[in-house]
């Protein structure tokens, strides 16, 4: 599974009526895909190759190979090619597996056509992360080092800092630089590295170039100055994370065009923020012109996140007639993904959740939730498991791993932000950590879908667990929901140790609802043992409810229609 978006321009080529039907299915789902016509199928395929970012050919693999073979140039610029057979049984990633996105496209096409993706890239076949799939530019002997990783040969991982890499196999081991060791190396650095046949280089996004300029500066002058500054410092431009400048330069075409040409964002800061940064070369002339004694150096240090204390100025301001640049290195930050797994069914787990689990080097979670996702994790992923009742310990463990510079996924069921792990984790996560939230299908949504449409109007979520919230607070909230006539959903409704709270809450609601108000109980939504039970506020027996249940109590407008709970929106057509 993948959370990548399909390429912007997809050309479809078909020779038969069946192929055109499959193409219609693709265009219905992806409006940016189009059927490419030609006098012959070969002409259509050549046109799609020239005009599109990716090609889906509903043809025989051999025919596609013969037609595109003379067109091949460079895997980094050639379009991705996916071949689908006449019966749409298979979607074959033929060309551009990683670099062109064909592997991801084959999975997406297969999902649309109910076909099987066929991916032969070696790393994918054995479930290892390809060096060109880690999200950073990779240079050097990529094929040789990838083959060494696949063959289980020792590969030394040498990093300038603790970057949050995904899980790597055991034969890739962190090591110090050793000039006498001529084995395979994977370097993680922004430094220029002499090429050799056994070294691949990952370029982390560590560098920020601050740019100042006179009005009307040519883009060529900015670009040439920046390239020279990087080269003189022995830094590789592939590690540029962004360009940064003052707000008043946000519309300066020479700066903006340089950022676009480099493929990096342009970040701008107000003069007041820039002026607060301590720089080695302040200028009163600059202060008089733009309101801050430094643009280039201060912007380089602030970077994209405004954390100048985490940056080191590597290149002080250097200037031409109309441009000034400075370069700072920003320290790596740990990465914490808080991932909601959904209610339990694998097809209700989002592609983004899967991608984050595969991106992580450390996964932290409740033991029973980890058992649901072990097949998704990459080899080498470290798993930190604990049992019920250890929420705070799990949160602290995940934050500690991320603060140490690692890529961490903290998992929870449903949506991690709804009575789950996001809140306790983010209480401890400080500025050293980049946090990524991955929403999930929460139990209330899964239960609502099974019951019908009980959440069609305003509703309130309440937990009946008084382990962390005093009952008198819970009681006030239930009363407020009852008086406000909200559809009310109860999480943690009843356990063996807490067997009276649900009855008490239902009694409060019953005082503000007709006795025939529908109530739905859903146990194990989307999981084995799923059960749906319908009753009313007057007839529900709390004994049918446990901690695996969600209880949905309708508002005074909720009704049963053909055995389904429906809360009307109040549209005019209802009257």
Automatic annotation (TrEMBL):
Domain Tetrapyrrole methylase intervals: 336-540
Gene3D superfamilies in the cross-refs: 3.40.50.11220, Cobalt-precorrin-4 Transmethylase, Domain 1 (3.40.1010.10), CobE/GbiG C-terminal domain (3.30.420.180), Methyltransferase, Cobalt-precorrin-4 Transmethylase, Domain 2 (3.30.950.10)
Domain CobE/GbiG C-terminal, chain residue ranges per copy: 207-328
Enzyme Commission numbers on file: 2.1.1.131, 3.7.1.12
Listed name of the protein: Cobalt-precorrin 5A hydrolase/precorrin-3B C17-methyltransferase
Protein keywords: Cobalamin biosynthesis, Hydrolase, Methyltransferase, S-adenosyl-L-methionine, Transferase
Pfam families according to UniProt: CbiG_C (PF01890), CbiG_mid (PF11761), CbiG_N (PF11760), TP_methylase (PF00590)
Domain Cobalamin biosynthesis central region: start-end pairs: 133-204
GO annotation, biological process: methylation
Gene Ontology MF: a single term: precorrin-3B C17-methyltransferase activity
Domain (Cobalamin synthesis G N-terminal): residue spans on this chain: 44-124
InterPro entries per UniProt: 4pyrrol_Mease (IPR000878), 4pyrrol_Methylase_sf (IPR035996), 4pyrrole_Mease_sub1 (IPR014777), 4pyrrole_Mease_sub2 (IPR014776), CbiG_mid (IPR021745), CbiG_N (IPR021744), Cbl_synth_CobJ/CibH_dom (IPR006363), CobE/GbiG_C (IPR002750)
PANTHER family reported for this sequence: COBALT-FACTOR III C(17)-METHYLTRANSFERASE-RELATED
Signal sequence range: none
Pathway: Cofactor biosynthesis; adenosylcobalamin biosynthesis
């Amino acid at each position: 599974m993948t959370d990548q978006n399909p390429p912007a321009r997809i050309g479809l080529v078909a020779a038969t009526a069946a192929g055109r039907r499959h193409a219609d299915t693709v265009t219905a789902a992806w409006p940016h895909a189009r059927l490419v016509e030609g006098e012959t199928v070969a002409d259509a395929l050549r046109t799609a190759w020239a005009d599109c970012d990716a090609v889906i050919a509903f043809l025989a693999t051999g025919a596609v190979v013969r037609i595109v073979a003379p067109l091949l140039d460079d895997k980094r610029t050639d379009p991705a090619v996916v071949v689908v057979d006449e019966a749409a049984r298979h979607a074959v990633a033929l060309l551009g597996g990683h670099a062109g996105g064909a592997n991801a496209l084959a999975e997406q096409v297969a999902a649309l056509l109910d076909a099987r993706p066929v991916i032969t890239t070696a790393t994918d076949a054995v479930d290892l992360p390809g060096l060109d799939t880690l999200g950073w530019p990779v240079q050097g002997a990529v094929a040789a080092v990838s083959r060494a990783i696949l063959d289980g040969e020792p590969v030394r991982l040498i990093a300038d800092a603790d970057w949050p890499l995904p899980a790597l196999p055991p034969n890739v081991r962190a090591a110090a630089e050793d000039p006498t060791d001529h084995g395979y190396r994977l370097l993680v650095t922004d430094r220029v590295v002499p090429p050799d046949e056994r070294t691949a280089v990952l370029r982390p996004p560590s560098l920020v170039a601050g740019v100042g300029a006179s009005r009307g500066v040519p883009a060529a002058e900015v670009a040439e100055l920046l390239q020279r500054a990087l080269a003189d410092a022995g830094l590789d431009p592939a590690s540029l994370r962004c360009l940064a400048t003052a707000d008043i330069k946000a519309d300066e075409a020479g700066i903006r065009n340089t950022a676009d040409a480099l493929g990096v964002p342009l970040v701008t800061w107000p003069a007041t923020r820039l002026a607060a940064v301590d720089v080695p070369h302040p200028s009163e002339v600059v202060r008089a012109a733009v309101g801050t004694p430094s643009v280039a150096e201060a912007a380089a240090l602030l970077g994209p996140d405004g954390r100048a204390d985490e940056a080191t100025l590597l290149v002080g301001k250097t200037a031409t007639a109309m441009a000034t640049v400075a370069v700072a290195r920003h320290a790596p930050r740990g990465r914490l993904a808080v991932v909601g797994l959904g209610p339990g069914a694998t097809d209700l787990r989002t592609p983004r959740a899967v991608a984050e689990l595969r991106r992580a080097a450390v996964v932290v979670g409740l033991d029973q939730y980890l058992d649901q996702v072990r097949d998704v994790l990459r080899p080498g992923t470290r798993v930190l498991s604990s049992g019920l009742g250890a929420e705070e310990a799990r949160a602290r463990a995940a934050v500690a791993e991320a603060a140490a510079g690692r890529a961490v996924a903290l998992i929870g069921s449903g949506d991690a932000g709804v009575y789950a792990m996001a809140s306790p984790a983010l209480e401890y996560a400080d500025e050293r950590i980049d946090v990524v939230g991955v929403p999930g299908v929460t139990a209330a949504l899964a239960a609502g879908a099974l019951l019908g449409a009980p959440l069609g109007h305003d509703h309130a979520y309440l937990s009946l667990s008084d382990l962390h919230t005093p009952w008198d607070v819970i009681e006030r909230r239930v009363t407020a929901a009852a008086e406000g006539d909200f559809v009310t959903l109860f999480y943690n409704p009843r356990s063996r140790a807490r067997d009276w709270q649900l009855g008490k809450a239902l009694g409060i609601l019953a005082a503000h609802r007709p006795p025939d108000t529908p109530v739905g109980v859903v146990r194990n939504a989307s999981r084995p043992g799923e059960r749906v039970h319908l009753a009313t506020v007057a007839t529900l027996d709390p004994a049918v409810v446990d901690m695996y249940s969600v209880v949905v109590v309708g508002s005074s407008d909720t009704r049963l229609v053909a055995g389904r709970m429906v809360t009307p929106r109040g549209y005019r057509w209802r009257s």
